[in-house]
Amino acid sequence: MRTCSEKNTRTAALAIAVLLVLITASCLLYLLLTDRRQGACTAEIYQNGRLIRVIPLDQVQKAYSFDVVGQGGCINRIEVRPGKIGVIWADCPDRLCVEQGFAESPVIPITCLPNRLVIRLKVEDALPADTAVPDAVTY
Amino acid sequence: MQTKKLTVLALYATLSLAVYAVESALPPPAPIPGLKLGLANIITLILLRRYTCRDAALVLTARILLSALLFGQAMSLLYSLAGGILSLLFMYSADRLLRKKYLLLTGAVGGLAHNIGQLSLALAVTATPGVLAYLPFLLPGGIVTGLFTGLCARLADKYLPRKHA
After folding, report:
1. Are B115 and B83 a contacting pair, CB within 8 Å?
2. What phi and psi, each to the nearest 5 degrees, are found at residue B58?
3. Domain boundaries in chain B?
4. Cβ under 8 Å to A: B residues 134-163
5. Mutate which of A1, A14, A20, A31 to disrupt the B interface (most B C-beta within 10 Å)?
6. Which one of A81, A84, A119, B6 has the lowest number of neighbouring Cβ atoms within 10 Å?
7. What's the longest Cα–Cα distance across chain B?
């Protein structure tokens, strides 16, 4: 009886271990295969789930910064540079949003959980040169 | 509750608060919100092994409330509670299934559940599906840090005297 329950425990342990390995492997695989297209990125700034600002990063010529003020007066100072965006100062307690640095690709968004701010990058679907948008369409 | 047990549990709560304080002084392992070592989980694991789930829940709640009061803010309290409670439930189930034998695996399950709980709350709070982009980092991160806390708990359990347990 005892050996039977011991066997069951070992089977359960093995099942859990396999499940954990599978979760880890699928996450790593996803990160490896994920779309890493470099190119024209658009930054979307969300606050409380609401899209408050869209910035086409490829059109930025000169770096500039602005403040996003949230509920209760919390502030995130965002700097936009050509092709990248980041939080350079914030009044949140952990400043993880500042430590995340500048984002250039859509792989990881920049998030400030205390101030409920998320900056997402999106790669614009660039059209191949030979299928460019027509100058005019006539009917 | 017996006075002796109350005292021992209070000691464990103090220990986990001290471990939490030490951890918050360390730089985060990666600049990803939610990813941390979770060293205070070592105490929860030891309590699950030596006492009951109820005792572990009591100490966990005390630690979370005290740490929010001493170091944190209202938001971090919510995140800690979401992660802590889900992690405790999962660790309790895993520990029962594994008959308190594989503390390493229980820790890994706890780390995983903790990060799932926190990310779910982050999703609810920010209402931005974009935060799910952290999922492929937070899931393996939770498993790895959970394995580490499980290992620490196993070693600590070996050397902590059982006389007062």
Report:
1. yes
2. -60, -50
3. 3-159
4. 134-137, 139-140, 143-144
5. A20
6. B6
7. 50
**Residue B106: C-alpha distances to residues A96, B27, B42, B55, B147 (Å):** 29, 26, 11, 17, 8
Asked if A57 contacts A41 with a C-beta cutoff of 8 angstroms, the reply is yes
Q: Return the axis-axis angle of helices B135-159 and B41-50, rounded to nearest 10°.
A: 50
Kindly provide the ipTM of the predicted complex, given to two decimals: 0.85
- pLDDT per residue as tens digits for the range B1-42: 689 999 999 999 999 999 999 988 888 787 788 788 999 999
pLDDT at B161: 81
Using CA atoms, how far apart are residues B117 and B115, in angstroms rounded to an integer? Answer: 5
How far does CA B56 lie from the centroid of its chain?
10
A44 bridge partner residues: A54, A120
Burial of B153 (0-12, 13-18, 19+ CB in 10 A): buried
Strand ranges of the sheet holding A64-69, from the earlier edge strand across to the other edge: A64-69, A75-81, A84-90, A102-103
